[in-house]
Amino acid sequence: MQVSDILRVKGNTLYTATPDHALADAVNLMAERDIGSLVVMSQGHLVGMLTFREVIQAVVRNGGSLGSLQVRGVMDAQPLVCTPETEIDEVRRMMLERHARYMPVMSGHMLMGVISFYDVAKAVVDSQDFENRMLKAYIRDWPADATEPTSGQG
């Protein structure tokens, strides 16, 4: 299974901010849309990722306030990325190693979407459920005489 399989199911709605965006506005957008991340874009290029993790760290550093902070000062400027062709097992490994909950999907310089750890986990569980159903159907339809010894009399 590849990242493209997740994007096909998930859709391609993207929420973005610019580096000069006020952090308070970015947080409001995240709250309104009930999303945990924003892709930070500048002149059509991915320049960072803003997640609730960076927001919480900024609030703590700023004494409990967002103040006049900009996205630029808080975002992860080197986000982990993958391609639509990346295998899901590789994505899981990458996300676990880096403790990343969100990953932009890039095809060359084009942003194709964002996948979350939840999206990856759901895809794995759905795939396993499908495989289990297929195996159970196969076992249920097992030919009765295939396992019974034949009598040697003829």
Short summary:
This protein has helices at 3-10, 23-33, 52-61, 88-98, 117-140; strands at 16-17, 37-42, 45-51, 102-107, 110-116. Helix content is 42%, strand content 18%. It is of the alpha+beta class.
Characteristics:
alpha+beta; two-stranded antiparallel ribbon; three-stranded mixed beta sheet; 5 helices; CBS-domain; 154 residues; elongated
Q: Overview of this structure, please?
A:
With 154 residues, the chain is α+β, with helices and mostly antiparallel strands. It has one domain: CBS-domain (Roll). Helices cover 42% and strands 18% of the residues. The protein contains five helices and five strands. The strands form two sheets. A three-stranded mixed β-sheet has the order 1-2-3. Helix 4 (88-98) packs across helix 5 (117-140). The longest helix is centred in the last third of the chain and has 24 residues, at 117-140. It is elongated and about 75 Å long. The mean pLDDT is 88.
CATH superfamily: CBS-domain
So what's the overall shape?
A: elongated
- At the third CATH level, what is the topology name? CBS-domain
In total, the number of strands is 5
Mean pLDDT: 88
Quote the beta fraction. Answer: 15-25%
